[in-house]
Amino acid sequence: MSVRKEGLPVLTDAFSTRIVEWQQRHGRHGLPWQHTRDPYRVWLSEIMLQQTQVTTVLTYYERFLQRFPDVTALAAASQDEVLALWSGLGYYSRARNLHRCAQAVVSQHGGQFPRSSEQLQGLPGIGRSTAAAVAAFCFGERVAILDGNVKRVLTRVLGFAGDLAQAVQERALWGQATALLPDRGIEPYTQGLMDLGATLCSVRAPQCLLCPVRDLCVAAATQTQTKFPVKTRKLKRSKREHLWLWLCWRDRVWLVQRPDQGVWAGLWSLPEFETAPGFEQHSAGWPGQADRLPPFTHVLTHLDWTLHPVRWTLPADLEEAQAAALVSAWPTGRWFTQAEALAAGLPAPLRKLLLSRRPGGALSRARRARGVGSV
Ligand code: SF4
Protein backbone atom coordinates (compact mmCIF):
# COMPACT_ATOMS: atom_id res chain seq x y z
CA MET A 1 0.00 0.00 0.00
CA SER A 2 1.21 3.50 -0.67
CA VAL A 3 0.04 7.02 0.05
CA ARG A 4 0.37 9.49 -2.79
CA LYS A 5 -0.49 13.13 -2.92
CA GLU A 6 1.19 15.87 -4.78
CA GLY A 7 3.94 17.40 -2.67
CA LEU A 8 3.75 14.62 -0.08
CA PRO A 9 6.03 11.61 0.19
CA VAL A 10 5.09 8.08 -0.77
CA LEU A 11 4.80 5.86 2.27
CA THR A 12 4.65 2.11 1.87
CA ASP A 13 3.66 -0.67 4.25
CA ALA A 14 6.97 0.01 6.00
CA PHE A 15 5.28 2.74 7.97
CA SER A 16 2.51 0.66 9.52
CA THR A 17 4.77 -2.38 9.95
CA ARG A 18 7.26 -0.37 11.93
CA ILE A 19 4.58 1.29 14.04
CA VAL A 20 3.14 -2.12 14.92
CA GLU A 21 6.54 -3.67 15.73
CA TRP A 22 7.55 -0.66 17.80
CA GLN A 23 4.28 -0.74 19.72
CA GLN A 24 4.73 -4.39 20.54
CA ARG A 25 8.29 -3.90 21.82
CA HIS A 26 8.28 -0.36 23.22
CA GLY A 27 4.68 0.84 23.41
CA ARG A 28 2.47 1.10 26.47
CA HIS A 29 0.90 -2.17 27.62
CA GLY A 30 -0.05 -1.75 31.26
CA LEU A 31 -2.79 0.85 31.11
CA PRO A 32 -6.05 -0.35 32.71
CA TRP A 33 -8.13 0.29 29.58
CA GLN A 34 -5.89 -1.89 27.43
CA HIS A 35 -6.42 -5.64 27.03
CA THR A 36 -10.15 -5.24 27.07
CA ARG A 37 -12.71 -5.26 24.30
CA ASP A 38 -15.39 -3.83 26.50
CA PRO A 39 -16.56 -0.71 24.62
CA TYR A 40 -17.77 0.89 27.85
CA ARG A 41 -14.27 0.84 29.33
CA VAL A 42 -12.53 1.90 26.12
CA TRP A 43 -15.02 4.70 25.50
CA LEU A 44 -14.71 5.96 29.09
CA SER A 45 -10.91 6.07 28.81
CA GLU A 46 -11.03 7.82 25.44
CA ILE A 47 -13.33 10.56 26.76
CA MET A 48 -11.26 11.03 29.91
CA LEU A 49 -8.02 11.17 27.94
CA GLN A 50 -9.24 14.04 25.78
CA GLN A 51 -7.28 17.06 27.06
CA THR A 52 -6.15 15.20 30.21
CA GLN A 53 -2.86 13.45 30.99
CA VAL A 54 -2.77 9.68 31.52
CA THR A 55 -1.43 10.03 35.08
CA THR A 56 -4.41 12.17 36.09
CA VAL A 57 -6.91 9.94 34.32
CA LEU A 58 -5.76 6.74 36.08
CA THR A 59 -7.28 7.64 39.47
CA TYR A 60 -10.52 8.98 38.01
CA TYR A 61 -10.92 6.00 35.72
CA GLU A 62 -10.72 3.45 38.56
CA ARG A 63 -13.04 5.47 40.78
CA PHE A 64 -15.56 5.88 37.99
CA LEU A 65 -15.61 2.15 37.24
CA GLN A 66 -16.06 1.27 40.89
CA ARG A 67 -19.13 3.46 41.10
CA PHE A 68 -20.43 2.82 37.55
CA PRO A 69 -19.22 -0.63 36.50
CA ASP A 70 -21.22 -0.59 33.27
CA VAL A 71 -23.14 1.67 30.95
CA THR A 72 -26.49 0.83 32.59
CA ALA A 73 -25.25 1.96 36.00
CA LEU A 74 -23.94 5.19 34.52
CA ALA A 75 -27.19 5.87 32.66
CA ALA A 76 -29.19 5.39 35.87
CA ALA A 77 -27.11 7.89 37.86
CA SER A 78 -28.06 11.52 38.38
CA GLN A 79 -26.10 14.16 36.48
CA ASP A 80 -25.07 15.61 39.85
CA GLU A 81 -23.42 12.36 40.83
CA VAL A 82 -21.60 12.05 37.52
CA LEU A 83 -20.35 15.64 37.78
CA ALA A 84 -19.26 15.03 41.37
CA LEU A 85 -17.11 12.08 40.30
CA TRP A 86 -15.73 14.12 37.40
CA SER A 87 -14.95 17.07 39.65
CA GLY A 88 -11.34 18.17 39.09
CA LEU A 89 -10.93 16.59 35.63
CA GLY A 90 -12.10 19.79 33.92
CA TYR A 91 -13.88 20.23 30.57
CA TYR A 92 -17.18 19.35 32.21
CA SER A 93 -19.11 19.15 28.95
CA ARG A 94 -17.35 15.77 28.59
CA ALA A 95 -19.04 14.52 31.77
CA ARG A 96 -22.47 15.75 30.74
CA ASN A 97 -22.09 14.17 27.30
CA LEU A 98 -20.79 10.97 28.88
CA HIS A 99 -23.97 10.75 30.92
CA ARG A 100 -26.20 11.57 27.95
CA CYS A 101 -24.36 9.04 25.81
CA ALA A 102 -24.84 6.28 28.41
CA GLN A 103 -28.56 7.07 28.49
CA ALA A 104 -28.72 6.95 24.68
CA VAL A 105 -26.91 3.58 24.59
CA VAL A 106 -29.45 2.19 27.06
CA SER A 107 -32.58 3.76 25.55
CA GLN A 108 -31.71 3.47 21.84
CA HIS A 109 -29.39 0.47 21.67
CA GLY A 110 -30.62 -1.83 24.45
CA GLY A 111 -27.54 -1.17 26.61
CA GLN A 112 -25.07 -2.33 23.91
CA PHE A 113 -22.71 0.09 22.18
CA PRO A 114 -23.12 0.06 18.39
CA ARG A 115 -20.29 -1.81 16.69
CA SER A 116 -19.40 0.51 13.81
CA SER A 117 -17.57 3.83 13.98
CA GLU A 118 -20.30 5.38 11.86
CA GLN A 119 -23.06 4.48 14.34
CA LEU A 120 -20.89 5.38 17.31
CA GLN A 121 -20.50 8.88 15.93
CA GLY A 122 -24.23 9.34 16.25
CA LEU A 123 -23.99 9.25 20.06
CA PRO A 124 -23.57 12.37 22.24
CA GLY A 125 -19.98 13.46 22.76
CA ILE A 126 -18.46 10.85 20.43
CA GLY A 127 -16.51 12.46 17.62
CA ARG A 128 -14.98 10.79 14.60
CA SER A 129 -11.66 9.92 16.24
CA THR A 130 -13.17 8.59 19.47
CA ALA A 131 -15.66 6.51 17.49
CA ALA A 132 -12.79 5.10 15.44
CA ALA A 133 -10.74 4.23 18.52
CA VAL A 134 -13.65 2.35 20.11
CA ALA A 135 -14.49 0.56 16.85
CA ALA A 136 -10.85 -0.39 16.21
CA PHE A 137 -10.01 -1.55 19.75
CA CYS A 138 -13.30 -3.30 20.54
CA PHE A 139 -14.59 -4.52 17.19
CA GLY A 140 -11.46 -4.62 15.00
CA GLU A 141 -12.82 -2.13 12.47
CA ARG A 142 -10.18 -0.92 10.02
CA VAL A 143 -10.65 2.77 10.52
CA ALA A 144 -8.36 5.75 11.13
CA ILE A 145 -8.08 7.82 14.29
CA LEU A 146 -6.86 11.41 14.30
CA ASP A 147 -6.58 12.81 17.78
CA GLY A 148 -4.13 15.59 18.65
CA ASN A 149 -1.17 13.26 19.18
CA VAL A 150 -1.77 11.35 15.97
CA LYS A 151 -2.17 14.56 13.99
CA ARG A 152 1.26 15.60 15.20
CA VAL A 153 2.87 12.31 14.19
CA LEU A 154 1.26 12.14 10.76
CA THR A 155 1.78 15.77 9.78
CA ARG A 156 5.45 15.47 10.72
CA VAL A 157 6.03 12.17 8.96
CA LEU A 158 4.23 13.35 5.83
CA GLY A 159 5.47 16.93 5.97
CA PHE A 160 1.77 17.85 5.76
CA ALA A 161 1.85 21.67 5.70
CA GLY A 162 -1.88 22.27 5.16
CA ASP A 163 -3.51 24.53 7.73
CA LEU A 164 -5.66 22.29 9.92
CA ALA A 165 -7.79 25.29 10.86
CA GLN A 166 -9.30 24.80 7.39
CA ALA A 167 -11.83 22.00 7.09
CA VAL A 168 -10.56 21.05 3.64
CA GLN A 169 -7.06 20.43 5.00
CA GLU A 170 -8.36 18.50 7.96
CA ARG A 171 -10.32 16.32 5.54
CA ALA A 172 -7.19 15.80 3.46
CA LEU A 173 -5.30 14.61 6.52
CA TRP A 174 -8.11 12.20 7.35
CA GLY A 175 -7.68 10.88 3.83
CA GLN A 176 -3.97 10.34 4.39
CA ALA A 177 -4.58 8.66 7.74
CA THR A 178 -7.05 6.29 6.13
CA ALA A 179 -4.75 5.47 3.23
CA LEU A 180 -1.98 4.56 5.69
CA LEU A 181 -4.07 1.93 7.52
CA PRO A 182 -2.59 -1.56 7.47
CA ASP A 183 -4.62 -4.48 6.16
CA ARG A 184 -4.09 -6.36 9.42
CA GLY A 185 -3.21 -5.45 12.98
CA ILE A 186 -5.44 -2.41 13.36
CA GLU A 187 -5.30 -2.56 17.17
CA PRO A 188 -1.51 -2.44 17.68
CA TYR A 189 -1.23 0.04 14.80
CA THR A 190 -3.78 2.40 16.37
CA GLN A 191 -2.23 1.97 19.79
CA GLY A 192 1.23 2.46 18.30
CA LEU A 193 0.34 5.79 16.74
CA MET A 194 -1.17 6.95 20.01
CA ASP A 195 1.87 5.79 21.98
CA LEU A 196 4.34 7.37 19.58
CA GLY A 197 2.53 10.71 19.82
CA ALA A 198 2.30 10.48 23.62
CA THR A 199 5.92 9.50 24.19
CA LEU A 200 8.59 10.07 21.51
CA CYS A 201 6.91 12.53 19.17
CA SER A 202 6.31 15.21 21.77
CA VAL A 203 5.24 18.78 20.99
CA ARG A 204 8.49 20.57 21.76
CA ALA A 205 11.28 18.00 21.96
CA PRO A 206 10.62 14.92 19.84
CA GLN A 207 13.10 12.10 20.39
CA CYS A 208 13.64 11.33 16.74
CA LEU A 209 16.76 9.25 17.32
CA LEU A 210 14.61 6.62 19.04
CA CYS A 211 11.74 6.79 16.55
CA PRO A 212 10.94 3.75 14.40
CA VAL A 213 9.90 5.89 11.40
CA ARG A 214 12.70 8.43 11.54
CA ASP A 215 14.03 7.64 8.05
CA LEU A 216 10.51 8.06 6.62
CA CYS A 217 9.84 11.33 8.40
CA VAL A 218 9.94 14.56 6.40
CA ALA A 219 10.08 16.78 9.48
CA ALA A 220 13.02 14.89 10.97
CA ALA A 221 14.90 15.02 7.66
CA THR A 222 14.40 18.76 7.34
CA GLN A 223 14.66 19.54 11.07
CA THR A 224 11.23 21.17 10.97
CA GLN A 225 9.51 19.04 13.61
CA THR A 226 8.09 21.91 15.65
CA LYS A 227 6.54 23.51 12.55
CA PHE A 228 3.97 20.71 12.44
CA PRO A 229 1.05 20.51 12.69
CA VAL A 230 0.15 23.84 11.09
CA LYS A 231 -2.91 25.44 12.67
CA THR A 232 -3.23 29.20 12.33
CA ARG A 233 -6.45 29.86 14.14
CA LYS A 234 -5.67 30.19 17.81
CA LEU A 235 -8.18 30.47 20.61
CA LYS A 236 -8.62 34.05 21.64
CA ARG A 237 -7.88 34.38 25.34
CA SER A 238 -9.78 36.76 27.55
CA LYS A 239 -9.74 37.91 31.18
CA ARG A 240 -12.53 38.09 33.68
CA GLU A 241 -12.81 39.13 37.33
CA HIS A 242 -15.51 38.36 39.85
CA LEU A 243 -16.16 38.65 43.51
CA TRP A 244 -17.02 35.20 44.86
CA LEU A 245 -19.40 35.07 47.80
CA TRP A 246 -18.67 32.28 50.25
CA LEU A 247 -21.74 32.59 52.43
CA CYS A 248 -21.75 30.53 55.64
CA TRP A 249 -24.55 30.00 58.07
CA ARG A 250 -24.21 27.58 60.97
CA ASP A 251 -22.41 24.56 59.48
CA ARG A 252 -23.59 25.27 55.94
CA VAL A 253 -22.51 27.01 52.78
CA TRP A 254 -24.78 28.48 50.11
CA LEU A 255 -24.09 27.04 46.64
CA VAL A 256 -25.81 27.78 43.35
CA GLN A 257 -26.04 25.46 40.38
CA ARG A 258 -24.45 26.98 37.32
CA PRO A 259 -26.34 27.11 34.01
CA ASP A 260 -26.11 24.25 31.51
CA GLN A 261 -23.93 26.31 29.17
CA GLY A 262 -20.61 28.02 29.69
CA VAL A 263 -17.79 27.63 32.17
CA TRP A 264 -18.35 24.92 34.85
CA ALA A 265 -21.78 24.24 33.36
CA GLY A 266 -24.03 22.29 35.72
CA LEU A 267 -21.57 22.39 38.65
CA TRP A 268 -22.33 23.80 42.09
CA SER A 269 -20.46 27.00 42.79
CA LEU A 270 -20.49 30.25 44.81
CA PRO A 271 -22.62 33.26 43.81
CA GLU A 272 -20.63 35.76 41.73
CA PHE A 273 -20.66 39.54 41.51
CA GLU A 274 -19.03 41.53 38.73
CA THR A 275 -17.99 44.38 41.02
CA ALA A 276 -17.40 44.96 44.71
CA PRO A 277 -19.85 47.93 44.76
CA GLY A 278 -22.48 45.66 43.24
CA PHE A 279 -21.92 43.19 46.02
CA GLU A 280 -21.90 45.85 48.71
CA GLN A 281 -25.20 47.14 47.47
CA HIS A 282 -26.66 43.66 47.42
CA SER A 283 -25.45 42.80 50.92
CA ALA A 284 -26.13 46.17 52.60
CA GLY A 285 -27.57 45.55 56.04
CA TRP A 286 -26.65 41.87 56.17
CA PRO A 287 -25.71 40.70 59.64
CA GLY A 288 -22.44 38.90 60.29
CA GLN A 289 -18.79 39.13 59.46
CA ALA A 290 -17.12 39.58 56.03
CA ASP A 291 -13.57 38.38 55.49
CA ARG A 292 -11.78 39.15 52.26
CA LEU A 293 -9.57 36.22 51.25
CA PRO A 294 -6.58 36.34 48.90
CA PRO A 295 -7.68 36.45 45.23
CA PHE A 296 -6.48 33.82 42.78
CA THR A 297 -6.55 33.33 39.03
CA HIS A 298 -8.03 30.18 37.58
CA VAL A 299 -6.65 29.47 34.11
CA LEU A 300 -9.08 27.94 31.63
CA THR A 301 -8.41 27.13 27.97
CA HIS A 302 -9.69 30.47 26.74
CA LEU A 303 -9.92 32.51 29.89
CA ASP A 304 -7.91 33.81 32.86
CA TRP A 305 -10.52 34.14 35.58
CA THR A 306 -9.54 36.05 38.70
CA LEU A 307 -11.77 35.37 41.66
CA HIS A 308 -11.89 37.45 44.83
CA PRO A 309 -13.44 35.28 47.54
CA VAL A 310 -15.28 36.99 50.35
CA ARG A 311 -16.28 34.77 53.20
CA TRP A 312 -19.38 36.05 54.88
CA THR A 313 -20.33 34.35 58.12
CA LEU A 314 -23.93 34.89 59.17
CA PRO A 315 -24.74 34.75 62.88
CA ALA A 316 -25.59 31.22 63.97
CA ASP A 317 -28.72 32.43 65.77
CA LEU A 318 -30.14 33.90 62.54
CA GLU A 319 -33.62 32.48 61.97
CA GLU A 320 -34.13 30.09 59.06
CA ALA A 321 -36.60 32.46 57.42
CA GLN A 322 -34.13 35.35 57.68
CA ALA A 323 -31.35 33.27 56.16
CA ALA A 324 -33.71 32.22 53.36
CA ALA A 325 -34.57 35.85 52.64
CA LEU A 326 -30.89 36.75 52.19
CA VAL A 327 -30.37 34.12 49.53
CA SER A 328 -33.68 34.51 47.70
CA ALA A 329 -31.88 36.18 44.77
CA TRP A 330 -30.45 32.76 43.78
CA PRO A 331 -33.34 30.41 43.10
CA THR A 332 -31.01 27.67 41.79
CA GLY A 333 -29.16 27.55 45.12
CA ARG A 334 -29.41 25.68 48.40
CA TRP A 335 -27.60 25.25 51.68
CA PHE A 336 -25.06 22.43 51.84
CA THR A 337 -23.25 21.04 54.83
CA GLN A 338 -19.51 20.80 54.27
CA ALA A 339 -19.76 17.04 53.69
CA GLU A 340 -22.64 17.45 51.22
CA ALA A 341 -20.77 20.15 49.35
CA LEU A 342 -17.62 18.07 49.03
CA ALA A 343 -19.67 15.16 47.67
CA ALA A 344 -21.28 17.38 45.00
CA GLY A 345 -19.96 18.34 41.55
CA LEU A 346 -17.74 21.31 42.38
CA PRO A 347 -15.17 23.24 40.33
CA ALA A 348 -11.67 22.34 41.54
CA PRO A 349 -10.85 25.82 42.99
CA LEU A 350 -14.02 25.78 45.10
CA ARG A 351 -13.23 22.32 46.45
CA LYS A 352 -9.82 23.62 47.45
CA LEU A 353 -11.34 26.68 49.07
CA LEU A 354 -13.86 24.65 51.07
CA LEU A 355 -11.15 22.26 52.21
CA SER A 356 -9.12 25.23 53.40
CA ARG A 357 -11.81 25.79 55.99
CA ARG A 358 -10.64 22.73 57.87
CA PRO A 359 -8.44 23.23 60.95
CA GLY A 360 -4.88 23.78 59.71
CA GLY A 361 -6.15 24.44 56.15
CA ALA A 362 -4.93 27.32 54.03
CA LEU A 363 -7.66 29.66 55.26
CA SER A 364 -6.59 29.37 58.85
CA ARG A 365 -3.13 30.51 57.76
CA ALA A 366 -4.32 33.12 55.26
CA ARG A 367 -4.17 36.78 55.98
CA ARG A 368 -7.73 37.95 56.53
CA ALA A 369 -8.81 41.47 55.85
CA ARG A 370 -11.92 43.13 57.11
CA GLY A 371 -14.03 44.68 54.39
CA VAL A 372 -14.73 43.74 50.82
CA GLY A 373 -12.19 45.81 48.88
CA SER A 374 -12.34 46.32 45.13
CA VAL A 375 -12.67 44.00 42.15
S1 SF4 B 1 11.04 11.13 13.52
FE1 SF4 B 1 10.69 12.60 15.12
S2 SF4 B 1 9.20 14.04 14.28
FE2 SF4 B 1 9.22 12.22 12.96
S3 SF4 B 1 7.55 10.97 13.81
FE3 SF4 B 1 9.44 10.29 14.77
S4 SF4 B 1 9.56 11.45 16.65
FE4 SF4 B 1 8.06 12.46 15.37
Structural write-up:
- The chain has 375 residues and is α+β, with helices and mostly antiparallel strands.
- The chain folds into two domains: 10-227, Hypothetical protein, domain 2 (Endonuclease III, domain 1, Orthogonal Bundle), CATH 1.10.340; 238-370, Nucleoside Triphosphate Pyrophosphohydrolase.
- The chain has 17 helices and eleven strands.
- Strands 3, 4, 5, 6, 7, 8, 9, 10 and 11 form a nine-stranded mixed β-sheet that branches.
- A hairpin with a 2-residue loop joins strand 3 (238-249) and strand 4 (252-257).
- Helix 2 runs antiparallel to helix 8 (128-139).
- The longest helix has 17 residues, at 93-109.
- Iron/sulfur cluster binds next to helix 9 and helix 12.
- CATH architecture name of the largest domain: Orthogonal Bundle
Q: Which cofactor or ligand species appear?
A: iron/sulfur cluster
Report the radius of gyration as a whole number of Å.
Answer: 25 Å
CATH class descriptor name of the largest domain: Mainly Alpha
Helix content: 40-55%
Q: Structural class of the secondary elements?
A: alpha+beta
